[in-house]
Structure formats: structure tokens, C-alpha cells
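Notebook p. 47: complex prediction with flavin mononucleotide.
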Amino acid sequence: MKISQILQANRSFRRYLEEDKVPLQEALRWVKNLRYTNSMRNAQPLKYILVDKPTLLEKIYPLLRWAGYLKDWNGPEKGERPPLLIVQLLDKDCSSTARFDEGLQLSALTLQATEAGYGCCILAAFDASSLVSTLAIPSRFTPLAIVAIGHPKEHVVIEEQEGENIKYFRSSDGIHHVPKRKAEELILTIPEA
Ligand SMILES: Cc1cc2nc3c(=O)[nH]c(=O)nc-3n(C[C@H](O)[C@H](O)[C@H](O)COP(=O)(O)O)c2cc1C
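Predicted complex, C-alpha cells below:
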């Protein structure tokens, strides 16, 4: 796949084939590749915890906040939850901020997983203090995001955005629709001098 095709395929999926595990060695390879990403001041302040043990996953699933726009849906049910969660942490001994780096690495991680045929969802909404205690994360680290990964059990399509309506929605056939601004809207033309 070309990078432009991977970018298009890299949608947010929120329902997965829970029993279809992601091999840990493969996920470790994606995370290890993150050392190649650009880093502000080359501080490289990001660390990761990979969670795939069912007993631990059961404790973390209730801490995740899914799809704020889907008001009548409380997140994936048993059987459709992500089999792998990767927690992104800021190591405050390296830097007080991970600004820019966090997004670059989240993107690099999800693009690799997408290239390998998986689906992901980046989550910034979760109960961070419960996560810290559940995983016994030392105080030096701050959880920034969680990436859910697995084989998608849902279909996601991009829609041409109408006006300012940015809210994704699910149609009655279960398909998840994501409005995106028209490409032309991204380019600002300035008057010639
Ligand atoms: C930084 C970041 C944080 C996000 N946090 C959440 C979250 O907490 N829960 C969730 O269900 N989706 C979350 N998402 C997914 C977005 O809702 C999703 O990217 C957006 O709806 C566009 O869909 P797309 O990723 O398929 O383009 C997050 C995405 C990003 C980039």
C-alpha cells in the first residue's frame, strides 16, 4: 500500500473481533520503530505499555470513554472490545512536555498497524488516575493516550462534510460515517503581492 492509501485506511475503529489477537511481537516491532520519529529538541520523552492480558484488559475497558458524539452507545460490548491496548506515557524525567511528539508517534503507530491490516482508535478520554493505579505506573510517568488495536468488526466510511457539521454518526446498517472537510478547504490562497 502507498502511504496515501494507508492514510485513507487509517480510520478510527471502535468495534473489534475481540478473540482475534494481535501478536505481541508484531506490536512490539511497531512500538520499537517509534524511536525513528522526529522529536522536538530530540528529547524523546515517550514510553509505552502494551496490555494484552485478558485479566488486565478487563480492568482497563471500563476506564475508556468511547465516541462522545454517539450519545446512545456506551462503547464496545463483550466480544467486540480491542484485544490490544497500547498506553502512551510522558516520561517527565526526559521532558515536561511531549508537545508535537505525542501526535507524531500516535500517527506512526496507527499507520504501521493499519499497514499490517489492523484497525485502531486513539483515545485521549479515559480515567487516568484509575489507569495509573491499575497498571501501577510510577509517578515519573503521565499517561497521555491509549491506542486500541485489533481486527475491526465495523465498517467506517469517509463522507464529504456538509458545512460545519463535524459530528461522525452511525447509520442504521451499523456503518460509521466520518465527515471530512473538502481537500480544497485546507488550502488558503493569499492575494498576490
Ligand atoms: C488525539 C485524539 C484523541 C482521541 N480521543 C478519542 C477518545 O477518547 N474516544 C474516542 O472514541 N475517539 C477518540 N479519538 C478518535 C476521533 O474521534 C476520530 O479521530 C475522529 O472522529 C475522526 O475519525 P477518523 O479517525 O476515522 O478520521 C481521538 C482521536 C485523536 C486524534
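Notes: Residues 3-183 form a domain with the NADH Oxidase fold (CATH 3.40.109.10). Helices lie at 3-9, 24-33, 54-60, 101-115, 128-135.
Next step: compare against the earlier run before touching the bench.
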